[in-house]
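Researcher: Next sequence.
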Amino acid sequence: MPKVFEYLGILIFFYSNEHDPIHVHAKYDEFESKAEFYLVNGKIVEIRIKQVKGKKPLIGNKLKDFKDFLKKYSDKIVVKWIDYFVYHKEVKFEKINKRIK
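Model: Next structure:
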């Protein structure tokens, strides 16, 4: 399970056996949601937040924090996905403690 980011206590990661579409999981305590990225001609055109089967979804401020994080870091997430799943490279973990403005 490659951990790619931590943002204000939210762990953002891939499972090692992932599938399309490109997506990332976000976990905080017992809550977990995922964000799916839809690309056209290499550009993100839509991000959908979805519930993970069998898990309680992120709610309230943590869901808002995750959405704010995605606005700023979605391109980096896609690059890390491609590096890990296509090129089989290690991906660098980044911890962000300051709130995104």
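Model: DSSP finds one helix and six strands in the chain. The chain has a mean pLDDT of 94.
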